[in-house]
Each structure stands twice: as C-alpha cells, then as structure tokens.
C-alpha cells in the first residue's frame, strides 16, 4: 500500500482526479488507525441532530432524485428508487 | 438508507416533506417562452415517511413519494440558422441549413436576392427546440426492515415507482458492523432495480428510429417504444468517529446499468454537408439534416467515491458539513461535487443553515449539440415518398451512438441555499429552506463546457415537518396506562367517516392536529347522458356542441392528497388550514372515424390519447365555531374560503390547447365554503349530518370560466365494535352546477399571409387568437356538473398501543347509487378515501 502511495505521489502532476481521490481515500483509511477512541459517554456532541451525516434525510432523498434527473452523475450505488427523470 | 450508525439516528419519526423546483427560461435566441406558449420545468414533490421501532431490535421505515413534472423540456438542439430556414419555409420540421465555404452556418435573407447572391450573415449559435410535456405524476412506495444486533445490523428493503411511461421495482440489502465501541462503522449495501419503459413517440414522431426499430410498435394506435433496463449497485463505506467533535465517512460505490438507457423523448440532429455537392452562383452550401431518436450505448459502468466530514465548532455550537464526491463512468463523464453547509443553532430551538454546492461534469463521448458529417445524406436505398424524409442508412455512418441531451454535456453548476428550522416542544420540528443555482457550460471545471444555449437557472423551496413519535407529549392524548376505569374508550376515536371534512372541533385552545387525506376517484365504462348510457354515434353528433366529437374518455383517475393542520383557538373555535396535491390521469379512445366523417364538420386533430395533469391544488382556510354542545350532541358552523393556488392553465401535451376542464388543478376562483355539522354519540352508537356548500366568488377565472356552485348533504351512523374500531354507513347527495363561460381564446400559429420568395409562393405564419379545441366530451363546458347519490362504507380505528398510539386511521369506500349528469360524462365507478390524523 505504501509503495502504491509513493508511486502515486511521485506522479502527482500526472494525476487525474480519480487517482487524487484514491490517494485521499487511502490517507483517510490510514488515519483511522491513528484515531483516539472516543468513549460512548463522550459522544453527546456527535449525537446532536445537526451532527448527523444526513441531517434531513427526506429532503436529501428528494433533492438527490432531482439531481439524478438534471446531472449525469448518478446517486452512487444504492437504489435511490425508480423513476425516469426524463423531462 | 445512509451508512452512519456512529452518529445517532432517530428511530421513531414521521416526516412530511414538500419540495418545489422551478427552472428559469432558457435562451431561445430571440424567441420567448411566452410567444411559444411554453413554461419552464417545474417539479412539485411530496414525501411522507414513517420510521418506527417494531420490537426491541426491529425497525421499519415506510416511504411514500410523489412528484409531478410539468413544463417544457428540450427535445433536440440545432443551429439557429436551421430554425430560421424552417420558419421561412414553413416546413413542419427543420431539415436544411446553409453554410459558407468555411462551413459556418448562415442566416439567409430570402428577399435580398440580386440575381446572383443573397445577403447572408454568419450565425454560430445553437438553440434548443422545446416540447411542452403534459404534467406527469410519479408515485413511489418503498419500505425497509432493519434488524440490529449489538454490533451489527442488517436491512432489507424494496419498493416500486410508477409513472405512466416508466415502471420500476427495486430491492436492496445492506448492513453494517461496528468496531471500537462503535467508533468505527463499516457499512455495505447492494441494490437491484428493474425498469420497464413504454414511451409514446407522439411528441417525437418526426425522428428516425435508428437502432430502436425493433423496440417500437403500435400500442393503442400510437407508436410506442418499449424498453427495459437493469441497474445493479454496490456500496462500501467506513464511518469513523475522529474525536469528540468530528466524524468522517469515506465511501465508494459501483453501479452497472444495462438495457435501454436512452431517453425516449430526446432526439439528435444529424447534419450532412456533402463535400461533392454542386455550389451555384449564390456560393451557399446546403447541409441536409435528419432528426433521429437519441442512441446511447446499452451498458454503463459507474463509479463513485465520496468523503463526508462533520465537525463541531464548539465556541459557536455549530456543525460544519463538508462533502466531496467524485464520479466516473465509461461513457467519458467525470464529475465533481462539493457541498458545504453550516448548521448554526440560534437558541430556543432555532437553527440557521446556509450552504453552497458546486458541481462540474465533463461531456459524454457521444454527446454533441448536433452531429455534422462530411458526407452526402446516407439514404436507405428504396422508393422515395414525396414529402417524407428518406430513412437513414446507419451503416454508412462512422459512429453509432448519439445524444444531444444537454445533461450529458460538459457544464458546471453552482448554488447557494439557506434553511431555517425550529424545534418545537412536543417533538415537532419544522424546517423551511430555499436554494438557487445556476447551470452553465462556462462553469465547468477546466473550461470547455457547452455553449450558453443550454444554460439555465433554477430555484427550490422546501418545507419539512418532522414529528418525533416517541416524544412523551404524544402519549398524553390517551388516558395513561391501562387503567381499568370507566373510560375504556380511547377518547379520540374519530366517529365520522373518512370522507367527511370539518366533522369535529379541537378540544381546547392550543391543541394541534395534523391530518392527511387521500381521495381517489375512479371513472370508467360508458359515457352517460343524464341517467342513461350514450352510444358512440350520439357522442359524435351531440356531445361536443357545434363541432363533432372524434374522441371519448375511456377511463379517468383523480388523486387528491390533502394535508391539514387544525389549531384550537379556544374551546369553541378552531382554525383549519389545508393544502392539496392534485393529479388527474385521463385515457381517451377514438370514436369511429366513419361516424365522424358523416357529420361533415371535421373536429380539430387529436393531440394525444392521454390527458395528464398534476401539481398543487387550491389552499383552504376555515374557521369552525361550536354553536351548541351538550348531552352527547354538538352543532358547529364552518366558514371558509379557498384561494386559487391550483393552476387552471394546464395544457395538453404538445399543444397550445388547454386540457379538459376537469383536469385542471383548482377552481381558479376564490371560493366560499360554508358548512353546518351536527354530531351525536350514545354509548356504542354515533351519528351525524352535514350540509356544506361551495360558492364561487368570481364570475370567471384567469382561463375564462368558473366552475358551478356545489351543495352537498350527508348523513351517517357508526357503531363501535371495540375500543379502537368502528364501522360506518353513510349516504351522500351532491349537486353541482354547470360551468359558466369557457376557455378564453389563446394564441396559436396559423397561415396569415403568403409571399413570393424567388419564384416560389410561401406561407407566412403568425399567432392568431384561436378558440380552445373541442374534440371530446371533456372539452365542452356543457358536460360538467349534475347530481349524484352515493352510499359509503367506512372503518375507523385509533391505534391502541405502541408508539403510534393515538394515531387515527380511516378508510371509506363511496359506491355510486345514482347519477344524473349535465350533458355527457364518464360513468362514476367509486371513490376510495383514506385518512390519517395525528393529534398532539
């Protein structure tokens, strides 16, 4: 993995965005090991509603359906539901 | 389903979402939407979701979504010079344009011919041809079941999505594992969707079918494209709590789509600039064009990578959300999405959320605004039919995939949004927000995006009402615990059947009640005149007034979703606010053309066999006041009005003509709604009666007519079977007056003059005020209103226990007993009414 990383960094200038993201993912994955463990009783802040990854899932779903029908990049793996979005 | 379990989730919640999206006008090179009778795209969406714990480790989620699309959408794009030429020649479709020696498209002034040359100007612009699609409503129901172990969870879900031309079914399976005392969550998901497409090619009838010859066949007299697609997806993600104040999610996804992946309503223009063509003294090169249904590859592999980061900014108690997503597919599209939002609590439950989003994509390999080939028009060998374009021989072309759908072009989009939410006590949260975005080729990352013809702007307004079902206040509507006192009856068992509005007052000041009502009315079978069936020959000659009918309705479905909020002003006065989502779908059939020809008056041409419409209906405000209460009996009066928020200017697909009067979304007038209600209750029995009316307060609406006034009388009785269940029987009489007036004239293109171009006479078109087309009984205002008698069978329940305790649900079927229609109308088949009330 490290070799891959070095190889990627060496060719940084030639990187397309896809590789850049792969690097970012690898970095964040390697970060995980370094994270301090946060005890469950210390997670009061993380449990606040506005700290949720998707604070308003209903609106996010409606918006995502709209974006799928206006833009070429699709929802990303999960079945967001059907619908043509042809207009 | 989202991935995080590292962060908290609410498990018992009902939400109602409303979302309105509207685009601005696109640049049509001097022609305005107004002059073309077009409206930009609008989408109204409504979503209801319930998430609830079933048992200790089981959770279910149920979602209902409907969205209605209306407005004009681009069909094809082509050189402005070709549009100019089409207008000058009066041709039904653009088929030719001229260029100079350097292949620049030219605008040619036909009156400037000096015997040798024309006056020309270069015009490099591309322009969309738009088509007005009738409103279409999509409905989706889906559900999920989730089982949680201590450190893992599994969920299984599925659903269906239905719209007239597109039917999908999907299922998904996913799960997650928690590590490090739930500091790390690994989530996975798989999904499969199958979609069946049956799209009428009416609005795209001039296009060559290309490789889709075998997919197209006649259905109900219309050329229809049948397709199927499969989408398989998989995701994998990790959510990590970084510290007490931040967490991150990294995920990736893969989707494989296969089958018919084109959009049946989009076409491309293939332009043939023959290098060997003869150039006369004018020096003009002729480029021949042919429209073709867009042809996309039949497989697409898509990859997504995303990072989401949430950080708590302690000094401000705020949360920063930063999301980045990269998308790549084997059609040549790379896309970046960056979303930032700031969630700022303001105290007392208020929250302000500003945000921004940037999106950029590169174009698909097979996208171009139009396709120019340096070769002669590759006509299929065979006979030539004068006036008809010759079919293309695709084997002579260098490429086999084409799309001019601007959504596959290179562009960027940038937007900003602002939302405000308020957390009320009793576990209710209301959020409203707005969002404005600009989509433009020039905003593409790295430049090289599409020209400005495809640019547009759009805004969204939305509202979310979220109700925490486990909030303690909700339980207080029922007597607490299982006390075996004399009041075993849950006090709020609704006694009036679902179809009766305004049946009760709030108990006291400050009481709040949310309700949802669904009304599904079905018509079908034969057309009736008065009380008897009318045959086709009678319809042809009599049901359309002076012109003959060439069409008649076959079936008609109306769906009304209504939300209401009831607020107790005092123990006698109640305020009720209602909003409606309306959707009408009508199917028509041809009447025998021989009968039609026999009457000698040719009806206007048929535009479509369907009339679909949908969107927001009228909005009501009512004041209910208790006049008498005592001895288990009660009388109250209601005074209210509805505001004409529902459109009365819905048009038929691909036409300037208004759709049927009955398919409009509201009355178009301010209406007065008085009512008087009496209810009584004695032990297991309950009864009631109501007199209600609608008085139109204007003589005509913006479209030129007014619906008839209405009087309705109903009476019912109900028997309580158990503490939580009652059955009802109801009779209802309704009388509605006929329509006053009719649709105003509207501008439509007609030949207004002729002129000499060179030696040829050409028609000159202009907009002329034209009466609305009448070609079916639905179009004649005389065929509305009448008297009806119905009997209703209903069931009401109050959920006796569990977290939904106190929710009231009801269902009623209204069976037509007798009908006396004004004019000619489609037989009534019944009405299904559902109600759900959630008191606080």
**What fraction of the residues of chain A are assigned to beta strands by DSSP?**
under 5%
- Characterize the biggest β-sheet of chain B: 16 strands, antiparallel, barrel
Count of runs of 4 or more consecutive helical residues of chain A? 3
Oligomer classification: heterodimer
The largest sheet of chain A, given as strand count, sense and whether it forms a barrel, is: none
Q: What strand line-up does the widest sheet of chain B have?
A: 1-2-3-7-8-9-10-12-13-16-17-18-19-21-22-23
Structural class of chain B: mainly beta
Helix share, percent of chain A = 40-55%
Cα(first) to Cα(last) distance of chain A is 45 Å
Structure class of chain A = mainly alpha
Condensed summary:
The complex is a heterodimer of chains A (87) and B (840). Helices cover 47% and strands 0% of the residues of chain A.
Describe this structure in words.
The complex is a heterodimer of chains A (87) and B (840). Helix content of chain A is 47%, strand content 0%. Chain A contains three helices and no strands. Chain A has helices at 2-10, 17-34, 57-70. Chain A is elongated. The N and C termini of chain A lie far apart (45 Å). Residues 1-16 of chain A have low confidence and may be disordered. Chain B is built from four helices and 41 strands. With 840 residues, chain B is mainly beta. Chain B has a 16-stranded antiparallel barrel. A twelve-stranded antiparallel β-barrel of chain B has the order 24-26-27-29-30-31-32-34-35-39-40-41. The longest helix of chain B has 10 residues, at 80-89.
């Amino acid at each position: 993995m490290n070799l891959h990383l070095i190889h990627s960094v060496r060719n940084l200038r030639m990187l397309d965005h896809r590789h850049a993201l792969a690097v970012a993912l690898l970095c964040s994955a390697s970060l995980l090991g370094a994270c301090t463990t946060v005890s469950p009783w210390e997670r009061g802040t993380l449990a606040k509603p506005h700290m949720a990854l998707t604070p308003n899932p209903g609106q996010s779903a409606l918006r995502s359906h709209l974006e799928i029908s206006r833009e070429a990049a699709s929802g990303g793996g999960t079945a967001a539901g059907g619908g043509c979005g042809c207009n | 389903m989202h991935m995080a379990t590292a962060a908290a989730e609410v498990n018992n919640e009902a939400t109602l979402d409303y979302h309105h999206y509207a685009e601005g006008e696109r640049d049509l090179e001097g022609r305005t939407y107004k002059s073309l009778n077009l409206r930009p795209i609008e989408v109204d969406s409504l979503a209801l979701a319930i998430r609830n714990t079933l048992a200790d480790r089981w959770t279910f989620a149920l979602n209902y979504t409907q969205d209605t699309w209306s407005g004009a959408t681009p069909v094809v794009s082509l050189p402005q010079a070709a549009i100019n030429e089409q207008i000058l020649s009066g041709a039904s479709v653009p088929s030719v344009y001229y260029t100079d020696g350097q292949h620049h498209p030219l605008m040619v002034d036909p009156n400037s011919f000096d015997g040798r040359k024309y006056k020309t100007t270069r015009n490099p612009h591309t322009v969309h041809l738009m088509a007005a699609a009738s409103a279409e409503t999509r409905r989706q129901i889906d559900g999920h079941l989730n089982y949680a172990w201590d450190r893992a969870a599994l969920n299984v879900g599925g659903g269906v999505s239905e719209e007239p031309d597109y039917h999908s079914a999907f299922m998904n399976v996913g799960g997650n594992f928690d590590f490090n005392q739930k500091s790390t969550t690994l989530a996975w998901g798989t999904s499969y969707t199958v979609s069946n497409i049956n799209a009428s090619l009416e609005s795209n009838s001039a296009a060559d079918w290309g490789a889709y010859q075998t997919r197209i066949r006649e259905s109900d007299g219309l050329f229809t494209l049948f397709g199927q697609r499969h989408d398989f997806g998989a995701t994998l993600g990790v959510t990590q709590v970084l510290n007490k104040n931040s967490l991150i999610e990294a995920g990736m996804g893969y989707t494989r789509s296969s089958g018919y992946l084109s959009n049946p309503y989009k076409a491309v223009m293939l332009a043939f600039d023959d290098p060997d063509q003869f150039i006369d003294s004018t020096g003009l090169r002729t480029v021949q064009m042919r429209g073709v249904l867009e042809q996309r590859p039949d497989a697409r592999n898509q990859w997504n990578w995303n990072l989401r980061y949430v950080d708590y900014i302690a000094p401000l108690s705020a949360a920063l959300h930063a999301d980045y997503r990269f998308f790549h597919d084997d059609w040549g599209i790379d896309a970046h999405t960056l979303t930032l939002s700031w969630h700022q609590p303001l105290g007392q439950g208020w929250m302000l959320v500003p945000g921004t989003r940037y999106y950029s994509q590169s174009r698909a390999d097979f996208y171009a605004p139009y396709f120019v080939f340096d070769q002669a028009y590759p006509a299929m060998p065979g006979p030539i039919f004068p006036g008809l374009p010759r079919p293309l021989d695709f084997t002579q072309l260098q490429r086999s995939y084409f799309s001019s759908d601007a959504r596959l072009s290179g562009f960027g989009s940038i937007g900003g949004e602002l939302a405000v939410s308020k957390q009320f006590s009793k576990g209710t949260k209301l959020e409203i927000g707005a969002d404005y975005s600009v989509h433009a080729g020039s905003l593409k990352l790295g430049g090289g995006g599409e020209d400005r013809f495809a640019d547009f702007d759009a805004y969204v307004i939305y509202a979310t009402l979220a109700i925490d079902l486990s909030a303690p206040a909700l339980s207080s509507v029922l007597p607490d615990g299982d006390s075996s006192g004399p009041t075993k009856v849950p006090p709020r068992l609704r006694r009036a059947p679902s179809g009766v509005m305004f049946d009760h007052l709030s108990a006291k000041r400050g009481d709040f009640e949310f309700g949802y009502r669904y009304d599904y009315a079905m018509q079908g079978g034969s057309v009736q005149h008065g009380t008897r069936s009318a045959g086709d020959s009678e319809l042809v000659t009599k049901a359309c007034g002076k012109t003959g009918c060439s069409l008649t309705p076959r079936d008609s479905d109306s769906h009304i979703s209504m939300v209401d909020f009831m607020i107790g002003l005092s123990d006698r006065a109640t305020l009720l606010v209602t909003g409606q989502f309306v959707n009408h779908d009508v199917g028509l059939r041809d009447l025998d053309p021989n009968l039609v020809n026999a009457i000698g008056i040719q009806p206007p041409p048929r535009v479509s066999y369907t009339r679909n419409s949908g969107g927001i209906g009228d909005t009501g405000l009512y004041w209910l006041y208790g006049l008498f209460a005592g001895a288990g009996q009660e009388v109250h009066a209601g005074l209210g009005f509805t505001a004409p928020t529902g459109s009365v200017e819905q048009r038929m697909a691909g036409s300037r003509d208004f759709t049927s009067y009955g398919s409009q979304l509201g009355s178009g007038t301010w209406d007065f709604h008085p009512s008087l209600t009496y209810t009584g209750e004695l032990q297991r029995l309950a009864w009631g009666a109501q007199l209600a009316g609608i008085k139109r307060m204007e003589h005509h609406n913006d479209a030129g007519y007014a619906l008839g006034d209405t009087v309705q009388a109903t009476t019912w009785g109900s028997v309580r079977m158990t503490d939580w269940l009652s059955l009802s029987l109801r009779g209802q009489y309704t009388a509605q007056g006929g329509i006053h007036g009719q649709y105003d004239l509207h501008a439509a293109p007609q030949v207004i003059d002729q002129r000499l171009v060179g030696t040829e006479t050409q028609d000159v078109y202009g907009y002329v005020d034209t009466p609305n087309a009448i070609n079916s009984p639905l179009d004649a205002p005389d065929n509305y209103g009448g008297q009806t008698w119905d009997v209703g069978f209903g069931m009401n329940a109050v959920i006796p226990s569990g977290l939904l305790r106190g929710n009231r649900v009801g269902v009623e079927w209204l069976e037509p007993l007798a009908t006396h229609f004004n004019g000619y109308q489609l037989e009534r088949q019944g009405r299904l009414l559902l109600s759900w009330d959630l008191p606080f």
